[in-house]
Write a structure and sequence with these properties.
The chain is of the alpha+beta class. Helices cover 28% and strands 23% of the residues. A hairpin with a 5-residue loop joins β13 and β14 (264-272).
Length: 512
């Protein structure tokens, strides 16, 4: 039995040696960032190598416990210059829009336009249209009340004054699933989580489709309630005004929120005399009916009325219906400006469904996401590394590595639509809203100002920034910064992102 004892002792000795040697074994870069007090960006010489500068910034104590993915590429050669956790799948937040926009430009084309049509299955005799009037939506998220007024004017010009039939809204261009699969219930009442319909309406030229603007304004007396205004005017919304006017100088505390499953919007709280107005973009429950209501008001304003037992309803337009008038949206390259610069979530979801409809003849999230996935793999994204759940980035389940996102940004440069793509990105420090977008108050000093062109992203615990920058010595770079699982101040995390991007803008490769 001695040989068994020898083997046992030998095994224990080997185990002891392995345990004691573990601290000395070379380890991969840790997944979770741990802060270091040994080196800071302030201590870093401006002539230091780029990787040392970036690593110093990423040692920021506020990144401790986060999963931070960073990927830096040469924009002219595609050479990977630096990475940290570059192959780790992370939540992109609104950096998802970079994928959606690229896929839309590739599949639909930069000049693609959405259509909205007014049709009838009847005939006009004299001033009376005998038949139903169809308002057929094909996804245009930029329809305004003024467009419905123009439709009404067009019908009036054709001699129509009365309609003996129903007013029918047709939203069958897309499916009837209104919300993406992972949308949080807490986001649903607000413009960031507005319902998606092929027939919808925007309250102003930010084009937040499927929403209304509700504004509470002060009166000149501390009696009664604040005044409430809804834009556009619609009977589709019911306002519960539970506000109270208070004396000047007292706090303004107004909340505006829609009750779930209804179009009752509750406005409550205190409004001081001479207090600033309180305004909120509120999503509408079932936006098809909202569009139909505003259109009917526009018809009435032009002196066009419905007679007989007419009703407002929803149905598909007959294939042989006659077109009375129509409108084409702005081209896609122009729509990308509010979509990307203002990070318009609704546009991301509409474009997703539109790609599904145009390419696979089904206006659904499933088909649209399939199209996006197919396209971005052609731009270097590994299909086995990603998970796509919506087109806007609102989902906490979207995943893509920073290296893959940077690779996409590199490869799209060869496309004939790239100029429109890059132009749609926010530009650091540029004060004009539709130029600077979500970066207009960030990196307001040169050389980052006007140089860093990138898409922002933000969710609870997630902050991202990916785009393009040129170094001090004229080298074009691509970067993707994705911070996940942070707690604390989002402004602090954005500050780290800005420091990284600014470091790229100030760097010189001359001595490297």
């Amino acid at each position: 039995m001695d040989w068994k004892n020898h083997m046992k002792k030998g095994f224990l000795l080997l185990l002891f040696l392995l345990i004691t040697m573990i601290p000395f074994l070379k380890q991969e870069e840790p997944l979770f960032v741990k802060a270091s007090e040994d080196i800071t960006a302030a201590e870093m010489d401006e002539d230091a190598p780029l990787d040392e500068k970036l690593s110093a910034i990423l040692a920021n104590e506020h990144l401790e416990g986060t999963v931070t993915g960073v990927s830096i590429k040469r924009a002219d050669t595609g050479e990977l210059l630096y990475q940290q956790n570059g192959d780790i799948r992370l939540h992109p937040a609104s950096n998802m829009k970079l994928l959606t926009a690229a896929a839309a430009l590739e599949t639909l084309g930069k000049d693609y336009q959405f259509a909205t049509e007014i049709l009838t299955d009847g005939k006009r005799r004299g001033k009376v249209l005998h038949g139903n009037l169809y308002l057929k939506g094909k996804g245009d998220p930029t329809l305004l009340q003024t467009d419905f007024v123009q439709f009404a004017k067009d019908l009036k010009k054709q001699g129509i004054r009365k309609i003996k039939g129903d007013l029918i809204g047709d939203d069958t261009w897309y499916d009837d699933v209104r919300l993406s699969q992972d949308l949080n219930w807490s986001d649903e009442p607000f413009y960031t989580g507005a319902q998606v319909s092929a027939l919808t309406l925007s309250p102003n030229e930010d084009y937040d489709a499927g929403t209304v603007i509700v504004e509470a304004t002060a009166k000149d007396t501390a009696k009664g309630k604040a005044e409430i205004r809804v834009t556009p005017e619609t009977d589709y919304i019911t306002i519960k005004n539970n506000t109270k006017m208070v004396d000047a100088g007292e706090p303004r505390d107004i909340s505006i929120e829609r009750e779930h499953g209804s179009n009752t919007i509750v406005v409550e709280g205190t409004m001081p005399v001479e207090g600033a107005a309180s305004r909120s973009w509120v999503s509408v429950w079932e936006p098809t009916g909202y569009a139909l209501d505003v259109f009917k008001k526009s018809l009435k304003a032009q002196g066009i009325s419905f007679i007989g037992n007419s009703k407002d309803t929803f149905a598909a337009t007959p294939a042989d219906a006659q077109l009375l008038t129509s409108k084409q949206s702005m081209p896609l390259k122009d729509l990308l400006i509010p979509f990307m610069k203002l990070s318009n979530n609704g546009h991301g979801e509409v474009l997703t469904k539109e790609m599904g409809k145009v390419i696979n003849d089904e206006g659904s999230w499933d088909e649209g996401l399939q199209v996006i996935g197919d396209v971005i793999t052609d731009f270097g994204v590994d299909e086995d590394t990603i998970l796509l759940r919506d087109g806007s980035g609102m989902s906490h389940k979207n995943m893509i590595p920073a290296n893959d996102l940077a690779e996409l940004l590199y490869n799209v440069q060869d496309e004939d639509w790239f100029a429109a793509y890059k132009e749609s990105l926010p530009v650091a420090g540029e004060a004009e809203r539709l130029v600077g977008g979500t970066l207009r108050y960030r990196m307001t000093s040169e050389p980052a100002k006007g140089n860093v062109t990138a898409k922002t992203g933000s969710l609870t615990g997630v902050s991202t920034l990916s785009g393009y920058v040129t170094t001090k010595d004229g080298k074009p770079l691509i970067f993707s910064i994705m911070v996940n699982n942070y707690v604390g101040s989002s402004a602090t995390i954005r500050g780290v992102e800005d420091q990284l991007a600014t470091t790229l803008a100030t760097h010189e490769f001359t001595e490297e």
